[in-house]
Design goal:
Strand content: under 5%
Number of helices: 20
């Protein structure tokens, strides 16, 4: 144990490598899901420096990683495994910045990285492992007295990280504004709006608007992703039949597929995607044009049924606090090993759920603490970003909402542990 404390980084590296070797020994497969294909398609276009025929569905942050792998999936997974190990080291450093002792920081880093979904996201063609890494880097810079630093280099680093985060997932464009907002509030004078930290907004907004312009050229729509119409349509799944008469044909197809999925006990959040072939055949529209039509259909339906929409938003928000793992159980080396991993995850996901519930309960305590002390603590900054993500994703879409929470799960646990430190458990942490 003394050796582990004396060489914490080496311990983390050994643990990270061994864990991944064990998982790959039993799961010798790259997980491909419906979302994966869009990233693979864009990575091919990036490799060929040719965007002709691009449908605007994905932003290039994650496909860039795939293109660096030369289109070879196992090389891409190898990169993601390395990124996962690097994430462990960054998480450990964040815990030290937050005044956890070396022993506790090491134990907590190993514990959190033992959750199976961490490694399984790394061996899936999905954005989550890269998103987690970039978020951890952002918080490592942010929590290291970032608001007190005036070095241009640090601001450039933060601006670059935030821009790359938006390049991975344009949804995160709200994060730079929250961070910059905290800077303004901490420093008080609103002339600070024109300080060098405006880089935090300029870099991400340049990326966001720049990629939207690329989509405008290729699809005719100035949007960061042409999924927008399908995404908001998912929030109409429970009341699609209440749409205006103008959209009755779309509603009929949507409702038919929703009811079919209900009868088959399938996830109705995906009903719009089951409807896609039929909608495309009926409308004869391209994907971007159909998405624009679905956007019109959705907002018209929401306008007529606001209470149904708010109910659906609450369902989407609630789903954010669930836990999920992305794997294909039939791809394990044998059924026995698959059953063992499934049992481990069964217990782990309850542990994660407990911490998510404690995090939500802690939001109230943090609010009370802020009213008393008027201090913008690390916990408040982290919590604000997480709560904002949970609310905004709920307004945006329904389906796979728990994936939105994955990059924040470590931070939720940290916030709960910081509260425990305040309550007198600091000698253990």
């Amino acid at each position: 144990m003394n050796m582990m404390r004396d060489y914490p980084i080496s311990t983390l590296l050994v643990f990270g490598v061994l864990l991944r070797i064990i998982v790959l020994f039993f799961y010798q497969n790259i997980s491909i899901f419906p979302d994966s294909q869009g990233y693979l398609d864009l990575s091919e276009l990036l490799l060929n420096f040719n965007f002709s025929g691009y449908d605007g569905t994905r932003s290039p942050g994650y496909p860039l990683l795939l293109s660096f792998a030369g289109g070879t999936l196992w090389i891409a997974v190898f990169f993601q495994l390395l990124i996962g190990i690097a994430s462990m080291v960054v998480l450990y450093k964040i815990l030290l910045i937050l005044k956890f002792n070396v022993k506790s920081a090491l134990f907590l880093t190993i514990l959190m990285n033992s959750f199976l979904q961490v490694v399984f996201y790394e061996i899936a063609i999905l954005t989550e492992s890269l998103t987690l890494f970039v978020f951890l880097l952002i918080f490592m810079v942010l929590l290291h007295d970032y608001f007190e630093k005036k070095a241009v280099g640090t601001d450039l680093k933060m601006g670059f990280l935030l821009a790359f985060l938006v390049l991975i997932k344009p949804f995160y464009i709200f994060v730079p504004f929250i961070i910059y907002g905290f800077y303004i509030l901490k420093k008080k004078p609103f002339l600070l709006f024109f300080s060098q930290k405006i880089i935090l907004l300029l870099f991400p907004m340049t990326v966001f608007l720049g990629w939207s312009a690329v989509n405008r050229i290729n699809t005719g729509y100035f949007v960061p992703t042409t999924f927008y119409g399908f995404n908001i349509a998912q929030n109409c799944v429970s009341f699609a039949e209440k749409s205006p008469e103008k959209y009755k044909d779309i509603a009929a197809i949507y409702v038919k597929n929703r009811e079919k999925m209900k009868a088959n006990e399938e996830d109705i959040a995906m009903a719009i995607w089951s409807s896609y072939p039929e909608l495309k055949a009926q409308t004869q529209l391209s994907f971007p044009d159909l998405s624009a039509l679905l956007n019109e259909f959705s907002w018209a339906t929401i306008k007529q049924n606001p209470s149904d929409y708010w109910k659906q938003v609450f369902v989407s928000w609630s789903d954010f606090w669930r836990t999920a793992i992305y794997w294909n159980l039939d791809e394990f080396a044998n059924k026995q090993s698959g059953s063992v991993f499934e049992t481990i995850w069964h217990f782990q996901h309850y542990f994660l759920k407990l911490f998510k519930l404690l995090f939500l309960a802690n939001v109230v305590l943090l609010f009370i603490d802020f009213i008393r002390n008027r201090k913008w603590t690390s916990e408040i900054i982290i919590t604000t970003i997480i709560i904002a993500a949970s609310i905004l994703q709920a307004f945006t879409t329904y389906g796979s909402n728990s994936r939105f929470s994955y990059p924040f799960e470590f931070l939720m646990i940290i916030v709960v542990l910081l509260q425990l430190k305040k309550m007198g458990f600091n000698r253990y942490l």
